């Protein structure tokens, strides 16, 4: 199954040394495993976004372990310090081990 | 249409219908009941015998007291703590208290983050507390919580 997620830098004019916030949105179910099918009475399996890792110029700046109490289509914001121009790479893994990757360019103004 | 072929056709369709959950999509139904994650167990596992300190003085929580809908509750935390090389917040964990599965998110930080900040959406089945746990790199644990009144619960 294809995973859909986006990454966005919330600040616009930032310099080297500033702390910026990044926003991650994942379009994904967060099935708890407790909801039941009304017709058959069987429960849907636990199916959720498991891990999100953000890497900035080869260094891990954020590592998230999500679980089922996070809302459906999780939204996460986290800060990091801009040290150089480069890319922020975000990896998504869900509980079925499906993977996806998103990149966003970091371009500080001089 | 001949009667024979009609009967064959219906049988074939019925078989496809039965096999449907196996053919299309990964698991449709769970084989077993999901395991509950009570709040106390999660807290004990995180704290592991150490004392927690009251973090309400250094943590700024921005959580609505009565959100419209329990399935999306925005939780925003800012921790006023230095993020130096040898003294920083290494982990922030968001838990709920009365859901069936209470773990929402665990966030590992490094000094590269600059400030200790986190925003995440949590779902809640009923009125309960949101508990924020923060661990420093030296093993000190801060705890802060806020009660959230939920009128319309999300599936918990």
Kindly, what is the distance between the CA atoms of the first and last residues of chain A, rounded to a whole number of angstroms?
42 Å
What is the CATH first-level class name of chain B? Mainly Beta
Shape-level CATH architecture of chain B: Sandwich
What's the total number of strands of chain B?
Answer: 8
Secondary-structure element pattern of chain B, one letter each:
HHEEEEEEEE
Q: Class of chain A in CATH? A: Mainly Beta
Residue ranges of chain A: pLDDT <50 for 5 or more in a row? Answer: none
**How many domain regions of chain B?**
1
What's the number of structural domains of chain A?
1
Q: Spans of chain B with pLDDT under 50 lasting ≥5 residues?
A: none
CA radius of gyration of chain A is 17 Å
CATH architecture of chain A: Sandwich
SSE succession of chain A:
EEEEEEE
Q: Could you give a short account of the major beta sheet of chain A?
A: 4 strands, antiparallel
Strand order of the largest sheet of chain B: 1-8-7-4-5
What is the spatial order of strands in the main beta sheet of chain A? 4-3-6-7
User: What percent of residues of chain A are in strands?
Assistant: over 45%
Summary of the model, kept short:
The complex is a heterodimer of chains A (about 110) and B (about 160). Chain A has about 110 residues and is mostly beta strands.
Describe this structure in words.
- The complex is a heterodimer of chains A (110) and B (156).
- Chain A is mainly β and 110 residues long.
- Chain A has a single domain (4-106), classed as Immunoglobulin-like.
- Chain A is built from no helices and seven strands.
- Chain A has strands at 4-9, 19-27, 49-56, 59-66, 75-81, 86-94, 99-106.
- In chain A, the strands form two sheets. Chain A has a four-stranded antiparallel β-sheet with strand order 4-3-6-7, with no helix packed on it. A three-stranded antiparallel β-sheet of chain A has the order 1-2-5, with no helix packed on it.
- The model of chain A has no long low-confidence stretch (mean pLDDT 90).
- A five-stranded mixed β-sheet of chain B has the order 1-8-7-4-5, covered by helices on one side. In chain B, strands 2-3-6 form a three-stranded antiparallel β-sheet, with no helix packed on it.
- Chain B is of the alpha+beta class and 156 residues long.
- Chain B has helices spanning 3-23, 39-47; strands spanning 52-54, 59-62, 73-79, 89-96, 103-108, 116-122, 128-136, 141-148.
- The mean pLDDT of chain B is 83.
- Chain B has a single domain (39-148), classed as SoxY domain (Immunoglobulin-like).
